[in-house]
């Protein structure tokens, strides 16, 4: 099966051609970061307009790079939620139009299911069940992947997502958007033990996360330094903040893996690109004789290849969508199709 996949849920316009599940023939990503960063974050209206301008060219390029004609495509797949409604609609409308014109099956994909499925691209040995820490710009979930397309969320954030915390702290120290990669880089020059920021473990046994208290503690620290006219060491701040996030993510994931008797752990979403998280999780997995998987950087952040992979497992299960497929901005993971 050859799948043409489209992703427009946030600020990257992406199209990919995916063959037989996990063979990525092309994965074209047109990022709008430069447009949004002057506003310090994604502006939904600008995102939708830019998707409209880019989508046809991105799809054409994906087909060209894969050396495929439209006739070679068997399935059209598209992210239909969660995400920005106006952004999602551009992909959904394009996919529906193509599926109709070509008379090919249409499959709507959950964006987070895509992030999780990105792990299958480079880890052909990884099969459910496994435990996945999903940490992205809008989500922080601990998920038991029971089977392809079958998920049990055992923990989630009660306030900010992990990526959101990175982005907000980055803005506060003037590093700009998107904050994750910038904090990650700066933290390498800092001392992670320099500042004692809070680590939110919540009630005993809870797999939930909370990052807003940490974010406030960072903002308070910055304000206090300003009031006392003390110079802030941004590298130490970045390293200490990152350590507070990463320590909790690692300890809760390992605890859950033990409790659920899982030997395989996967990371997914943009924050899975974080070097400190990868390193600490790797170490913890080694100590506990667990195996860690994560996608390479390009498959961690938003891309259409991961959507094509998720669509493949839906396809073999017989999932199909009609031309009434709509964008669902708050689509829940594991929601029945
Ligand atoms: P969602 O997937 O929840 O809908 P999204 O699609 O906007 O949200 P992703 O593209 O998956 O999010 O990830 C983007 C997020 O990942 C941003 O918050 C960004 O700061 C963060 N991020 C990217 N690289 C890194 C990194 N190296 N370290 C930490 N965070 C990172
Ligand atoms: Mg993005
Ligand atoms: Fe995403």
Automatic annotation (TrEMBL):
Instruction: State any GO BP term from the record.
Output: tRNA threonylcarbamoyladenosine modification
Where does it localize? Cytoplasm
Output the Gene Ontology terms for molecular function. Answer: iron ion binding; tRNA N(6)-L-threonylcarbamoyladenine synthase activity
How many cofactor units bind, and how? Binds 1 Fe(2+) ion per subunit.
Write out the GO cellular component annotations.
cytoplasm
The record's EC number reads 2.3.1.234
Keyword line? Acyltransferase, Cytoplasm, Iron, Metal-binding, Transferase, tRNA processing
Q: Which Pfam families match?
A: TsaD
Sites where the protein binds substrate: 134-138, 167, 180, 184, 274
Name the catalysed reactions. L-threonylcarbamoyladenylate + adenosine(37) in tRNA = N(6)-L-threonylcarbamoyladenosine(37) in tRNA + AMP + H(+)
Q: Under which main EC class is this enzyme filed? A: transferase
HAMAP family listed in its UniProt record: TsaD
Q: What is this protein called?
A: tRNA N6-adenosine threonylcarbamoyltransferase
Q: Which gene encodes it?
A: tsaD
């Amino acid at each position: 099966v050859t799948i043409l996949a489209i992703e427009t849920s946030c600020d990257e316009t992406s199209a990919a051609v995916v063959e037989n599940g996990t063979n990525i023939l092309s994965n074209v990503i047109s990022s709008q970061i430069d447009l949004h960063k002057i506003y310090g974050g994604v502006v939904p209206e600008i995102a939708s307009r830019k998707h409209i301008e880019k989508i046809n060219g991105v799809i054409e390029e994906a087909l060209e790079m894969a050396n495929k004609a439209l006739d070679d495509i068997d399935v059209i797949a598209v992210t239909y939620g969660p995400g920005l409604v106006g952004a999602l609609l551009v992909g959904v409308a394009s996919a529906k139009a193509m599926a109709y014109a070509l008379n090919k099956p249409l499959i709507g994909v959950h964006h987070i299911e895509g992030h999780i499925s990105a792990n299958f691209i480079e880890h052909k040995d990884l099969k459910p069940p496994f435990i996945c820490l999903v940490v992205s710009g809008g989500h922080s979930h601990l998920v038991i992947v029971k089977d392809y397309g079958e998920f049990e969320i055992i923990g989630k954030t009660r306030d900010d997502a992990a990526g959101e915390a990175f982005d907000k702290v980055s803005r506060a120290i003037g590093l700009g958007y998107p904050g994750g990669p910038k904090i990650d880089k700066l933290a390498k020059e800092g001392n992670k033990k320099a500042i004692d920021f809070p680590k939110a473990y919540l009630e005993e046994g809870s797999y939930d996360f909370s990052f807003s208290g940490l974010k406030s503690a960072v903002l308070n620290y910055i304000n206090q330094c300003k009031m006392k006219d003390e110079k802030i060491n941004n590298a130490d701040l970045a390293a200490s903040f990152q350590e507070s996030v990463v320590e909790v993510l690692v300890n809760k994931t390992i605890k859950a893996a033990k409790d659920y008797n899982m030997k395989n752990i996967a990371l997914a979403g943009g924050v899975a690109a974080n070097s400190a998280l990868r390193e600490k999780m790797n170490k913890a997995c080694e100590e506990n004789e667990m195996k860690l998987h994560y996608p390479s950087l390009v498959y961690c952040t938003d891309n259409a290849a991961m959507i094509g992979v998720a669509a493949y497992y839906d396809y073999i299960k017989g999932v199909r969508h009609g031309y009434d497929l709509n964008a669902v901005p708050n689509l829940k993971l594991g929601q029945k199709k």
